[in-house]
Amino acid sequence: MSPKFAHPSSDAVKLIAVHSDQLDTALAALEPARADWLKATGFDGAIGAHALLSGATGGVALAVVGLGKTGQSRTRFAIAAGASRLPEGVYTLATEMTGAALDEAALGLLLTGYRFDRYKPAKAPLPAFTAPAGVDATRLEALAAGECLTRDLINTPASDMGPAELAAAAQSLAQAHGASCTVTLGDDLLEQNFPLIHTVGRASPRAPRLIDMRWGQSGPKLTLVGKGVCFDTGGLNLKPGASMGLMKKDMGGAATVLGLAHMIMALGLAVQLRVLIPAVENAVDGSAFRPGDVLTSRKGLTVEINNTDAEGRLVLADALALADEDQPDQIISMATLTGAARVAVGPDLAPFYTTDDTMARALPQAAGEVADPVWQMPFHAPYEAMIEPEIADLDNAPSGGFAGSITAALFLRRFVTATPYTHFDIYGWNPTAAPARPKGGTGQGARALLAALPEVLDL
Question: Boundaries of each Cytosol aminopeptidase domain copy (predicted)?
Answer without folding.
Answer: 307-314
